[in-house]
């Protein structure tokens, strides 16, 4: 038996595998394919104070080894989440974490306050990095003072585990991570999508209705690994790594770079059972390479 | 309905002409229940620039042989690559996905209208309608004869009409100009799939004549199971996922 459990600053996970917000619906969408209770945690769709229709279609472009999306936080809003969705997911024996987004500080605060009341939601992931909304979103995650303001305000009303999701669209992700730590975040997750554009040369038009969108998939993995590695060295709170993880080996690489857990995102679209393969694959890797505890892998990249 | 992720074996890959092919697959076990109008998300191997699965309509189902047939147009790298699949190779599918047609109770006569590869979801539909004792009439249209697909396959289920824009087969013009459309009220429902402009024009005619009309959409998709929210269609009730709320929509619910 190997130990796959990790402890994210008090948030105990049976294994380091989570799903990334916006790629896993609310969870039940995947029940035909996986046992949700075998996930360390799963992060549900970005939730805002008010319902959002998101951006107009088309809002996805397939790109080499990845995709651009411009969904724009389409979601039912926090009240409907609490009334209609929470009852269906609260009894899973895994951690449901709500990704909280907003266009102004007060929205984040009010949403976090409401989620704080839900007994079986042990954490929120504060999304200060969505590139697809006109107001708020990434604007909070690309400036240190703006990040500080929203994290501080949410920290005051949210008493459980506060994970802050960071944007890669910055000059120094370490600076934002340090702000998150100073303002009381319990962990940081990175990376959100990289801002990009897809153009159809035949029509000379952008493919996305919003022109720009967020790039995800294996195309971003090296960038994500680099940022996870930099941030893990700079902060003392746990780092959750994501960006293009398609296999157990990819997940191991994030652990080696310093992530204490990982999120599986875009891969869910191609193989809805991928998370189980990654959970199993991490165990196989440990057995094969003689590790008894997954924690030995965290930050275990050999540089000499 | 339970969705599955399975490898199916290619038992035949038949080129219809340079643009279209009929891919026959067999499941290793019993096929799950599949409803007409549903689709599969197909994983394309050996196509280095495709990343996502390809959503492909269920063309036909042969339960006693556990066969699933797909009618595919070569559109991009994914569908061009799949055209070279050989007998014995396997293909990974997530299926069955999406909703089905919802024709009114007491429907006696249905008109199916397919434009080009839009006939794909209509064959299994015709089979099921005929099994239920509903009279099926099929109208198949295209630019030319090469775009009129599977005419003979539809014949066992009822009368088949054709139209081409270049006058090479059947009546001349768009399907909406075909004489069968002159008396749309002879049908209890019109079910259609094809180019959006065709479905819009047909939907408008059906609305004007107050005939029940459903359309099958093919918005760009990623997951196919309602998680990514990229395939949304703007409806009178807001954005709906074509993969889970569709692909079939009543034309009255769309903002067309």
Distance between the termini of chain B: 30 Å
Largest sheet of chain A, described in full?
A: 8 strands, parallel, barrel
What Rg of chain B do the Cα atoms give? 17 Å
What is the strand arrangement across the widest sheet of chain A?
Answer: 3-4-7-8-9-10-15-16
Q: What features would you describe in this structure?
A:
The complex is a heterodimer of chains A (304) and B (256). Chain A is 32% helix and 21% strand. With 304 residues, chain A is of the alpha/beta class. Chain A has a single domain, classed as Alpha-Beta Barrel (TIM Barrel), CATH 3.20.20. The longest helix of chain A is centred in the C-terminal third of the chain and has 16 residues, at 274-289. Chain B is mainly beta. Helix content of chain B is 13%, strand content 36%.
Primary descriptors:
heterodimer; A: 304 residues; alpha/beta; TIM Barrel; four-stranded antiparallel beta sheet; 16 strands; globular; B: 256 residues; mainly beta; Elongation Factor Tu (Ef-tu), domain 3; Rossmann fold; seven-stranded mixed beta sheet; 4 helices
Q: Secondary-structure map with pairings?
A:
The complex is a heterodimer of chains A (304) and B (256).
Chain A: E1 6-8, E2 11-13, E3 17-19, E4 41-47, E5 60-63, E6 66-69, H1 78-89, E7 95-100, H2 105-116, E8 123-127, H3 138-141, H4 144-157, E9 161-165, H5 173-182, E10 187-190, E11 194-197, E12 199-200, E13 205-206, E14 212-216, H6 221-234, E15 239-241, H7 248-257, E16 261-264, H8 267-270, H9 274-289
Parallel strand pairs in A: 3-4, 3-16, 4-7, 7-8, 8-9, 9-10, 10-15, 15-16
Antiparallel strand pairs in A: 1-2, 5-6, 6-14, 11-14, 12-13
Chain B: E1 4-15, E2 20-26, E3 39-43, E4 54-57, E5 60-62, E6 67-73, H1 77-82, E7 90-97, E8 109-115, H2 122-131, E9 135-142, H3 151-154, E10 158-164, E11 171-172, E12 189-193, H4 196-208, E13 212-216, E14 232-235, E15 238-241, E16 248-250
Parallel strand pairs in B: 8-9, 8-12, 9-10, 10-11, 12-13
Antiparallel strand pairs in B: 1-2, 1-7, 2-6, 3-4, 3-7, 5-6, 13-16, 14-15
């Amino acid at each position: 038996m190997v130990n796959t459990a990790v402890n994210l600053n008090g948030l105990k996970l049976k294994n380091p595998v989570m799903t990334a917000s916006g790629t896993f619906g609310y969870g039940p969408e995947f029940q035909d394919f996986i046992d949700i209770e075998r996930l360390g945690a799963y992060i549900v769709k970005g939730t805002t104070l008010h319902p959002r229709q998101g951006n107009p279609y088309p809002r996805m472009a397939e790109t080499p080894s990845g995709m651009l999306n411009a969904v724009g936080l389409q979601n039912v809003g926090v009240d409907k989440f609490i009334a209609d969705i929470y009852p269906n997911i609260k009894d899973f024996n895994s951690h449901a974490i709500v990704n909280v987004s907003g266009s102004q500080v007060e929205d984040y605060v009010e949403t976090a306050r409401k989620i704080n009341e839900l007994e079986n939601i042990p954490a929120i992931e504060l999304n200060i990095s969505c590139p697809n909304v006109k107001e708020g979103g990434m604007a909070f995650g690309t400036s240190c003072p703006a990040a500080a303001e929203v994290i501080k305000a949410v920290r005051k009303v949210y008493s459980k585990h506060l994970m802050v999701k960071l944007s890669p669209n910055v000059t120094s992700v370490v600076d934002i991570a340090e702000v998150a730590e100073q303002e009381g975040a319990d962990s940081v997750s990175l990376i959100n999508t990289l801002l990009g554009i897809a153009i159809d040369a035949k029509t000379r038009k952008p493919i996305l209705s919003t022109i720009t969108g967020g790039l995800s998939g294996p195309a971003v993995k090296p960038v994500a690994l680099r940022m996870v590695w930099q941030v893990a060295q700079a902060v003392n709170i746990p780092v959750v790594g994501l960006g293009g993880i398609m296999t157990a080996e990819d997940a191991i690489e994030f652990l080696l770079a310093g992530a204490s857990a990982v999120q599986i995102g875009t891969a869910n679209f191609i193989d809805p059972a991928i998370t189980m393969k990654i959970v199993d694959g991490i165990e196989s890797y440990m057995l094969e390479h003689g590790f008894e505890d997954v924690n030995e892998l965290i930050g275990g990249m050999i540089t000499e | 309905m339970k969705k599955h992720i399975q490898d199916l074996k290619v038992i035949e890959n038949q080129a219809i002409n340079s643009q279209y092919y009929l891919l026959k697959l067999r499941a290793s076990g019993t096929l799950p229940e599949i409803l007409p109008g549903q689709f599969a998300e197909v994983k394309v191997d050996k196509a280095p620039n495709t990343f996502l699965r390809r959503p492909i309509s269920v063309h036909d189902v042969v339960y006693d042989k556990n066969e699933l047939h797909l009618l595919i147009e070569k559109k991009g790298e994914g569908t061009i690559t799949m055209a070279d699949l050989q007998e014995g190779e396997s293909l990974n599918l997530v299926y069955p996905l999406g909703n089905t047609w919802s024709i009114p109770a007491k429907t006696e006569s249905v008109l199916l209208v397919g434009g080009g590869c839009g006939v794909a979801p209509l064959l299994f539909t015709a089979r099921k309608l005929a099994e239920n004792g509903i009279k099926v009439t099929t109208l198949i249209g295209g630019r030319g004869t090469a775009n009129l697909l599977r005419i003979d396959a539809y014949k066992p289920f009822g009368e088949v009409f054709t139209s081409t824009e270049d006058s090479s087969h059947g009546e001349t013009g768009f399907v909406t100009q075909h004489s069968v459309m002159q008396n749309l009220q002879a049908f209890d429902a019109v079910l259609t799939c094809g180019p959006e402009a065709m479905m819009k024009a047909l939907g408008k005619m059906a609305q004007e004549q107050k005939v029940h009309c459903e359309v099958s959409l093919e918005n760009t998709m990623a997951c196919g199971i309602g998680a990514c929210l990229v395939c949304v269609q703007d409806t009178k009730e807001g954005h709906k996922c074509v993969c889970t709320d569709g692909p079939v929509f009543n034309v009255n619910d769309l903002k067309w």
